[in-house]
Amino acid sequence: MECARCHHDRTGAPVTGTGKALACGSCHPNKFDKNFVDNHMDPFPDDSYCVRCHHMEFAQLNFDHEAHKDYASDCSDCHHGADMEPEPQKCSNCHTEAGTNGLLSMRLAGHKSCGQCHGDMFDKGLSSCKDCHVLKDMTDYDGDFTACGQCHEAETKELVLPRMNAFHDQCMSCHEEMGAGPYGPDKCNQCHISR
Which of 30, 89, 134, 187 pairs with 81 at a CA distance of 20 to 30 A? Predict the structure, then answer.
């Protein structure tokens, strides 16, 4: 069986600098806590592994301001009215990445504003951020990574399979597919041997 069948962290050879396969715990923590967050990058031999989880950063919005003028009756169709901002300004002047002091995050504010006219796009569900955002090539990216919560509504700890779930999913799904070895809830004792 190919190593990559279980060690799926890399296409081709999933190895560290020493030629050994990465341990499952490099990506899948026993517990997703501050300790894991602070130390999770240490097991990887180089930064190219980062994009397995930190998979997208936005370069710019795919947006033509001039073209939108043809559809808007005035600036306040997209910007706040004069009572909030006497002159139209960039959303990020007030809306931060995470949202502060009762203000929506930049993502939610932008989506809410755009959704006023593009409700059809949001209602059917966008399959990708690429519909509106130009994505950076992450191959040699060396900037700060955007927090997972900026794009994913689930908590970060729910986006990363804990180690036990990763083992169960990887091992048992393969066993089931092959029709051999332990899988299913009544076969636990075939791997978990009591002493």
Answer: 134
Contact 111, 103 (CB under 8 A): no
Report helix, strand or coil for 135. Answer: strand
Asked if residues 32 and 58 have their Cβ atoms less than 8 Å apart, the reply is no
- Distance between CA atoms of 113 and 91, rounded to whole angstroms? 10
Are 44 and 22 in contact by the 8 Å Cβ rule? The answer is yes
Round to whole Å and give the CA distance between 140 and 51.
Answer: 10
The architecture of the domain spanning 58-135 is: Alpha-Beta Complex (3.90)
User: Tens digit of pLDDT for each residue in 117-152?
Assistant: 888 877 776 667 777 888 888 877 877 888 787 777
- Domains of the chain, by residue range, sit at 3-54+154-160, 58-135
Mean pLDDT on 2-17? 64
Helix (H, G, I), strand (E, B) or coil at 170: helix
For the chain, give the mean pLDDT.
81
